[in-house]
Amino acid sequence: MTGSGKYRWLRATRIISQAAARRRLAVVGQRHLALRDLGAGVYWAGAVVLVVVGFLAIFSIGAPLLLTGVAMLVVGRWRHRPAVVWPVLVGVWSFVLGYVLVAPLGCSTTSATLPGEAGRTTCSNVVGIDYSGTGVYNPSLYPALMAGLAVAAIGVVVTRQITRRRGGRGA
């Protein structure tokens, strides 16, 4: 083989091997896209299932599930960025935790024993805050709402700092 023929042969071999490598990369890329599409489908399906189950069970355990599903739908566009998704989800569950800890869970009423005397309603919660009043008393949910918002804000800030330190995408 002459000098120029040898170089042509090497060049042709290199071109063929580059084309084969591109085909392999294309197949790997398609596989990656297929897995990514599957993950996206599972994410969106999970969010919709949480919303539907949360709506159907709204009077028992549905509210946290509904809130989680709605939050997942809202941040779904950034689902591949943990520094965006995790703080939102932690915020939702922190809100639920703070609310449940402070909200009045059960109330009991005692009737008046003397004429002209009003009965007394006492409500308890996990933390031990005393919600009580005379007569027909409905305790305010405002302290529970404020506690839930405060705990959610703390949860979001802490989670955001953790995901930033770890160098997650979207930090």
Structure notes:
The protein has a three-stranded antiparallel beta sheet, with no helix packed on it. The chain is mainly alpha-helical and 171 residues long. Residues 28-33 have low confidence and may be disordered. It is built from four helices and three strands.
Descriptive labels:
171 residues, mainly alpha, three-stranded antiparallel beta sheet, 3 strands
The outline comes out as: elongated
In percent terms, what proportion of residues is strand?
5-15%
**Ranges with pLDDT <50 over ≥5 residues?**
28-33
Helix/strand structural class:
mainly alpha
Radius of gyration using CA atoms only? 30 Å
Distance between the termini: 58 Å
Count of helix runs: 4
- What is the overall pLDDT average? 81
SSE arrangement, N to C: HHHEEEH
**Helix content percent band:** 55-70%
**Sheet bearing the most strands, described?**
3 strands, antiparallel
Number of strands: 3
| Biggest sheet strand line-up | 1-2-3
Summarize, please.
The chain has 171 residues and is mainly α.
Give the topology, please.
Blueprint: H1 3-56, H2 62-74, H3 82-102, E1 106-110, E2 120-124, E3 131-134, H4 142-165
Antiparallel strand pairs: 1-2, 2-3
Helix pairs in contact: 1-2, 2-3, 3-4
